[in-house]
Design brief:
This protein is of the alpha+beta class and 230 residues long. It has helices spanning 5-11, 17-25, 58-61, 117-124, 144-152, 185-192, 223-229, and strands at 3-4, 29-31, 34-35, 42-43, 49-51, 54-55, 65-70, 98-99, 108-114, 132-138, 155-156, 159-160, 165-170, 173-178, 197-205, 208-209, 218-220. The chain has 3 domains: 3-59, Structural Genomics Hypothetical 15.5 Kd Protein In mrcA-pckA Intergenic Region, Chain A; 65-126 and 211-229, Alpha-Beta Plaits; 131-205, Alpha-L RNA-binding motif (Alpha-Beta Plaits, 2-Layer Sandwich). The longest helix has 9 residues, at 17-25.
C-alpha cells in the first residue's frame, strides 16, 4: 500500500510531518533516487527514501548500497592515475564507498557500490556463485556448436571456465550467465572460440537488473534487494 511521503518520514523518525513537508517542498527528499517535490506524493514501504542524498535509516546502520549503470570508458576504481573517469564520479561523495568487483573499462552496465565489506565479500567470493548476466555483441554469428563449447567451458590461463548458460538472442547478440568472475572473462571466452566481443553490457547480478536505469545513473538498493543478494 502506498503511503504519503511525509507520513513515512515521520514514522522513520526523520522529522515531524510538518517539517517533512518542508523538506519535500525544498527538493530534499528522493524516492529510489528520484527527487520528489509534490506533497501528495506517495511511496511503498519497500521504496528507498533519502533526505539530502542519504537513505532514511542509513544513519542507524551506517551502511549504503547503490546500483550504478556504469558507462563505457569508466574505470571501477576509487581514483585513476591517468585522470580517467571513475565510478566514484557518478555516485554521492558524502559517504566513502567502493565498487563491488570490477567491470572492464570498455564494458558498461550494472555494478554495485557500498561501504559494507562483509556484503561485498559475500557477493564476490566464488563459493557463493552469484549469477552475473551479460549481453555481448560479437563478430560473426556463433554456431550452436560454438555455443556448446562456451557452455561446457573453455581453457583460460591453463584451466577451464565453469559451465555457464549461453543463449543466442539473434544475429551476433548473445546472452551469457556466469557464476565465476575471472579477469575479462567474457571477452576472453569469446576470443577462444573465434568471435571477439564488439560491445559488452552487464545487465544483471543475481536477481537485480538494470531495469530503466539510464547510463551513468544510480539508485539505492532496497532492504529486500540487499538481503536477497547477500
Amino acid at each position: 500500500m502506498e503511503i504519503r511521503l511525509q507520513k513515512l518520514l515521520a514514522a522513520a523518525g526523520v522529522a515531524s510531518r510538518r517539517k517533512a513537508e518542508e523538506m519535500i517542498r525544498a527538493g530534499r527528499v528522493s524516492v529510489n533516487g528520484v527527487v520528489v517535490t509534490e506533497l501528495g506524493a506517495k511511496a511503498l514501504a519497500c521504496d528507498v527514501l533519502a533526505v539530502d542524498g542519504k537513505p532514511v535509516g542509513a544513519e542507524k546502520s551506517g551502511k549504503v548500497y547503490i546500483v550504478l549503470n556504469k558507462p563505457e570508458k569508466v574505470v571501477t576504481t576509487a581514483s585513476d592515475q591517468f585522470g580517467r573517469a571513475t565510478v566514484m564520479d557518478y555516485v554521492p561523495r558524502d559517504v566513502r564507498l567502493f565498487p563491488v568487483g570490477r567491470l572492464d573499462y570498455d564494458t558498461s552496465g550494472l555494478i554495485f557500490l557500498t561501504n559494507d565489506g562483509d556484503w561485498a565479500y559475500r557477493l564476490t567470493h566464488p563459493k557463493h556463485e552469484v549469477a552475473k548476466t551479460y549481453i555481448a555483441d560479437v563478430r560473426g554469428e556463433p554456431s550452436e556448436e560454438v555455443l556448446d563449447v562456451l557452455r561446457s567451458g573453455v581453457e583460460i590461463d591453463g584451466r577451464l571456465t565453469a559451465p555457464c548458460e549461453v543463449v543466442l538472442l539473434g544475429g551476433a547478440k548473445v546472452k551469457i550467465i556466469l557464476r565465476e568472475g575471472r579477469n575479462r572473462q567474457v571477452r576472453r571466452m569469446f576470443e577462444v572460440v573465434g568471435h571477439s566481443v564488439v560491445r559488452l553490457v552487464r545487465v544483471a547480478v543475481g536477481e537485480i537488473g538494470l531495469g530503466g536505469l539510464a547510463s551513468g545513473k544510480w539508485r539505492y538498493l532496497t532492504e529486500d534487494e540487499v538481503r536477497g543478494l547477500g
